[in-house]
């Protein structure tokens, strides 16, 4: 299954145009700022830590502008997945001057929430989103740091769709292709800056 590309950046956004990097360079930048942490959060798991990327202002800005450039004018709201998806997602939403909606782990949101249980490579969990966070028909960009087995992203998409909104795109920093997570996403458009 090939990587689907979302719509091209809107030419009307000079900030996106000014910071767009040549094809491949953002991928190389991301890969140079990711470190492997073995046996985290439990033995046998190789954790991809992107905090060094966040600590590098130029690299962080390049990723935010890369993501924003793909969706300018194409989405109404960004949904970020707890916790690292909050960081990139909120920055992209700010850059695009649109709203941001957090999808959180169980028990973290006050008020009525939609819930979705999912499995991941080392267990299972529940994600929640406020019932009133999205409006029917809104075009949503889902953002996270890593696509692994796909359970977290797929559960988030189900929450978005249960709220009556449309998943216009999914954008992740890393995709661990050997785990087959893309299959759980189905035919929803997904872009990975750095597929491994």
Descriptive account of the structure:
This protein is an alpha/beta fold. It has one domain (about 15-195): Rossmann fold (3-Layer(aba) Sandwich), CATH 3.40.50. About 35% of the residues lie in helices and about 30% in strands. It contains seven helices and nine strands; from the N terminus they run H-H-E-E-H-H-E-H-E-E-E-E-H-E-H-E. It has helices at about 15-20, 25-30, 50-55, 55-70, 85-95, 150-160, 180-185, and strands at about 35-40, 45-50, 75-80, 100-105, 115-120, 125-130, 140-145, 165-175, 190-195. It has a seven-stranded mixed β-sheet with strand order 5-6-4-3-7-8-9, sandwiched between helices. Strand 7, helix 6 (about 150-160) and strand 8 (about 165-175) form a beta-alpha-beta unit. The longest helix has 15 residues, at about 55-70. The radius of gyration is 16 Å and the shape is globular. The chain starts with 13 loop residues before the first helix and ends with a strand.
